[in-house]
Design goal:
The protein contains 14 helices and 13 strands. 40% of the residues lie in helices and 13% in strands. Strand 6 and strand 7 form a beta hairpin. The structure holds pyridoxal-5'-phosphate (PLP).
Length: 389
């Protein structure tokens, strides 16, 4: 068995932050069948597969409706537009998110009001909401970043007192729960991205909005499809746009949805292993709110020497990420849409941006690789402590 003996001395394989290939190899036959069905029907835009995906996804999330659209940014824009967000309105969200959250708000004509994050979870600090609400506030967009849910019920209670809406950005939280309800199912609407790297990902761009508000659902269905009156190809009830899901993506997502719970369970197992192995290492793992069961789109920790650690890990073949390195209140794109009166000071958001690092996380990551990542982090930090002593 000379091959076996040779293995330990072989260069260690690279551990990527995420890897979609294993998933697609595992599902190859089912995906091909789904693609073949779409070609056979040649239903390339919306169509039967998308309709069935909408039903299955709504059922999975526990809402009556799911409206499939072209991507997650559009899902947010459709939901905000459909509830009537427009010029003169303010929308409250966080700056520790992907740019799309703010893009959708600005595209609707509204301005942005960022609240700071809770330093433990790096999610919207619900205690900051009340003071951020002004007479112009039209909606709150909590972001379930990293696959952990903001306590949406708490956000809803505050919003209800002020007569404003809650639209959840659940792009990173397919299958997560908040007080037992699926991400996206508590607010007036919940918005999802099926970008390939998300926990449930298409093979291209795709997105959806979920809601149990039938009238709102009808409006979004019109908006995503040129404002068409239902079933009438050339009758335009409102000025809409084109943000439809491809039939191919609908068919592919139906195949993958059946595996989402198992994939999320494996992500939670990996997270638990990281927590156990890093327990005695001098880093802080970003916490999950007690009200949420997380699906670990990312596994994020904090360390003051983040950039050096990332370099050392990279040198030993371990890829890491930063979600996100520049908070949105510091992005030139968005500064014109912040309240002029208020100097934006988001201390916890800024502090986190300098310290966060996301570790490799995807369902097919092996236990051996999880151990290798954790051991390498321990080694890097111990060596640094010894050198500094
Ligand atoms: C991915 C993502 C989006 C946008 O989704 P796209 O499908 O890429 O348009 C929105 N918000 C958050 C938090 C995301 O992670």
């Amino acid at each position: 068995m000379p091959m076996r003996q040779a293995q330990p001395s072989m260069p260690a394989m690279r551990v990527p932050l995420a890897d979609l290939r294993a998933q697609h190899q595992q599902l190859g036959r089912d995906l091909q069948e789904a693609i073949d069905r779409v070609f056979a029907a040649s239903d390339f835009i919306l169509g039967n597969e998308v309709r069935q995906f909408e039903e299955e996804y709504a059922a999975y999330c526990g809402t009556t409706e799911a409206i499939a659209c072209a991507n997650g940014t559009d899902a947010l824009e459709l939901a905000l537009w459909a509830i009537g967000v427009g010029p003169g309105d303010e929308v409250i969200t966080v700056a520790n998110t992907f740019a799309a959250t703010a893009e959708a708000i600005v595209r609707c004509g509204a301005t942005l009001r960022f609240v700071d994050v809770d330093p433990r979870t790096l999610l919207m600090d619900v205690n900051e909401l009340e003071t951020a609400i002004t007479p112009k506030t039209r909606a709150i967009v909590p972001v379930h970043l990293y696959g952990s849910c903001v306590d949406v019920a708490a956000v809803m209670a505050i919003a209800a007192r002020h007569g404003i809406d809650v639209i959840e950005d659940a792009a990173q939280a397919q299958g997560a729960t908040s007080r037992g309800k699926r991400a996206g199912a508590t607010g007036r609407a919940g918005c999802f991205s099926f970008y390939p790297g998300k926990n449930l990902g298409a093979c291209g761009d795709a997105g959806a909005v979920i809601t149990s508000d039938q009238e709102l659902a009808n409006r979004m269905r019109q908006m995503r499809d040129h404002g068409r009156a239902s079933g009438k190809k050339y009758e335009h009830a409102i000025v809409g746009r084109n943000s439809r899901m491809d039939g191919l993506q609908g068919a592919i997502l139906r195949v993958k949805l059946r595996h989402l719970d198992a994939w999320n369970a494996r992500r939670r197992e990996i997270a638990a292993t990281y927590r156990a192995l890093l327990r005695d290492v001098d880093i802080r793992i970003v916490a999950v709110p007690e009200s949420s069961e997380a699906v670990y789109h990312q596994f994020v920790m904090r360390t003051s020497d983040r950039d050096a650690l990332r370099q050392e890990l990279e040198a030993s073949g371990i890829q890491t990420g930063i979600h996100y390195p520049i908070p949105l209140h510091r992005q030139p794109a968005f500064t014109p849409y912040l309240p002029a009166s208020m100097g934006v000071s988001l201390q916890e958001t800024d502090a986190a941006a300098a310290e966060i690092v996301s570790l490799p996380m995807f369902p097919e990551l092996s236990d051996a690789d999880v151990r290798r990542v954790a051991t390498s982090i321990g080694d890097c930090l111990t060596n640094r402590a010894v050198a500094a002593a």
